[in-house]
Design goal:
Length: 142
């Protein structure tokens, strides 16, 4: 790796010398799958890949534990549910993250589920229900 790129990664990402990061990564892989260490000893690109993989794995743990020194490195894994939530909150007061609280989100999810469930029950009994009832939009709830 070119010197300036290596310096930047050590200073801004790893927060330690690459050799130190490799020593910790090596110890981990030595106990888990020594063949990875053997390969990394022969292939410097694989060694770098294992160190970066270690960084990514740790970034999730830093987020979970709330490690303050690694706040800029937090990685929060999410799936389709996060996308669905963001789509649901689009153009509502919950679109702005500063308006999101556990209480407001929980109340909106519960209220929305209750409204849609009631509408579905009415529909099942033959009561004409407008389709707009089935798309509950988040709103401030006390």
């Amino acid at each position: 790796m070119p010197g300036e790129a290596r310096n930047r990664i050590e200073r801004d990402v790893l927060l330690q010398a690459f050799d130190g990061a490799w020593a910790a990564t090596r110890a981990y892989w030595q106990g888990r799958d020594p063949s990875e260490v053997d390969r990394a000893e022969r292939d410097l690109k694989h060694r770098m890949a294992l160190v970066f993989r270690s960084y990514l794995g740790q970034s999730s743990r830093w987020a979970i534990s709330g490690e303050p020194s690694r706040r800029n490195d937090y990685q929060i894994w999410c799936g389709p549910a996060m996308s669905a939530f963001n789509h649901w909150t689009r153009d509502s007061f919950l679109a702005q993250p500063e308006n999101r609280s556990v209480v407001q989100i929980a109340r909106n999810l519960l209220e929305g589920a209750a409204v849609v469930t009631r509408a579905q029950h009415l529909r099942a009994f033959g009561v004409p229900v407008p389709t707009t009832v089935f798309s509950f939009r988040p709103r401030p709830l006390a």
